[in-house]
Amino acid sequence: MSTKIPGEKSKAMLERGIPLFRNGLRYAEESQRAARRGYRGASQIIIDRAEGDFIWDLDGNRYIDFQNGWATNPVGNAHPEVIDAVHEAHKRYGFHYDHSLRYELAEKLAEIMPNQALPRFSYEVSGTEAAESAIHLALCYTERRYIITFSSAYHGEGLSTKLVSGYDGEKNRYLEAWTGGVIHAPYPYSDNIPAGMSEQQYVDYCLWYLDNHISDSMAPRDNIAAVMIEPGLAEGGNWIPPSNFLKGIRALCDKNDWLMIADEVLTGMGRTGKMWAVEHYDVVPDILVVGKNLSGGIEPCAGIAARDEILGNNPLSSSGSTFAGTPGGCAAGLKTLELYERYDLVENAARLGDIAAEIMQGWEQYAVVRQVRTNGLLMGVSFQSPVDDQEDWYFARAIRSRMLENGVWAISDQEVTIRMYPALNVDEEVLREGLAKMEEAISYVDRHGQVVGDSPDWPTGS
Ligand SMILES: Cc1ncc(COP(=O)(O)O)c(C=O)c1O
Asked: Is this structure's pTM higher than 0.90?
């Protein structure tokens, strides 16, 4: 397939959104800006339906789904058993807070937490709320004021999660005065390592910064409550932590009496081929943030798990909103975990991740490919311009557009990275086909440059 994106029906729907939504004109304006500078505009579709490994747009085009509801559908789109379980819960309870499913799911979660060391759970609706609840819990439990987070981290779009996120300074405009208790530390990227440093020296520098620089010049050690890290910085560019970085953080937390918060909203529940990404690094955090996959792709469910003494009796910290732990959300979580067990989905994700990594290992030979970064089915490829005066991320955009034309739907916003998060039960042939189509797109843009295909003709709203 090579399709004009967006098709007429998707385009008409996007046009309806212009006066309705925040930044309704975003795509149109962005495309015009790109065109003025000689770049290709953004491509977008509107989804009509989703099933298993695929989605269809309003114009009837089918796509292999590597976006996966932004990494929330571990058992594929619209899994019928999860839908039935949620439906049953809706019929039985409607919405109530104190229902038995929240107890059953909390018991199951306690069993699967790293080393079974985080037995207590507190429900939230979204990953954002869960991350915020982890932050407040850490401050209240330690009775300290500061949280350390990392450049390129993403923890959500709530007020305090915006403050602790570090992936785009623009996102925090006019919140400058609110950032008092947040310290952003450098993250040891596998790319753009400061001149002359080896990867290991870079990791050592980042750990040194945490242990010394912060307490020398920013905040006293004993006023730091926690270090919060994603064990795979997904939204910020799919950065996979170097193997000894998380262990180093755990050691510093132990040494300084800081809590370690692992935000596993995206990396958790099998995405990386282990139930929790921290298990790759053999560390157990004190608080673990859960979201996305727990919903089974059907009904939101999120929360935090923590050590007994942290979450067991801490009257200062409060959290949990009206809809935290809905019957439907808990039913989705329970059925999803049942499917994980029945189909060995975590092992399956590890196996498929190995296959994908083998396919992608040669891609760095393309001049437009900067780096391939994967851990299980947490997969990303960053791109660059092979020509000096052109901006890197337009190459990512051109490749994603060509992928859409080829029938593959992946994540790439205004970033140099394209990220692929297929379901943990994606059919192996579909995974291979999607990656083959992605490679075709890379090779095409590699040969023809970033202005390939028709730039979309966006409605202007005027
Ligand atoms: C690591 C991480 N934390 C928190 C969030 C926020 O979750 P939600 O979008 O469900 O609020 C995300 C979302 O992408 C995430 O990737």
From this structure: yes
